[in-house]
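INTERNAL AUDIT FORM
Audit reference: QA-55
Scope: verify that the stored structure record matches its stored sequence.
Auditor: D.O.
Record contents follow.
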Amino acid sequence: MMSVQMKTEDQPQAATFEWKGLACVYIPTRDVVRAAEWYYQMLGMKASILEPGSHAMLSMPSMGLFLIHTDHESKVNFYKEDGGEPQAAWCFSVKNIEELYNHLRANGVQVTELIDRHDCGINFQFYDLDGNYFDVNDDHRIFVPLHKVTEETHVFTLLKRKIGSKEALSDWDAVSDALGRTNRLPGRFVLQGWEEFLTHWPEQADELMQRLEKHNEVHPDKQADIMVR
């Protein structure tokens, strides 16, 4: 696949704006009240019916999520090619994706397969009552591909990138300091290729596990489930 680099150096620069994030997202529906009930029962989103035949606001952290009535055939998703798979226009982020997935399946909601995308998290897609197609992702985890470690010190380079440390990590004390400073540590810390890493670098594996467990003990507000695969 060819990569194209856009050249912007010679183009006039637009004014600098201070973007704060996405304010609102609007979801088309033929029946606002029925859709609001579905979103509450299936997704746990409480709705404020602002106008029964017009629109409702769903509870969603840091974003206005609105159900908007339409008499037209409208969807928030699109297709990249004729006869191809649908493409979600935007994606929910959730911490307990397996529970949500099982709940939707148990209630007959059309969902795709739950896929582990490693660094990108775990995700699946689903349809609402009106055929709107959404992506759901759980990126509240860090995947550490330990099977890629070929030298003893490589684990520090790997952890620096995964933890998001701005400073180089040269020893295990530095790793502990970086874990304590970061706000990025998610709900799960997945050690990919653990058995292979343990076989080749047992001392490093022992140190890593001890540092992660100590982090959970010292920082209960930033605890992460430690998973080995």
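Auditor finding: record pair retrieved intact. Residues 89 and 124 are 14 Å apart (CA to CA).
Action required: none
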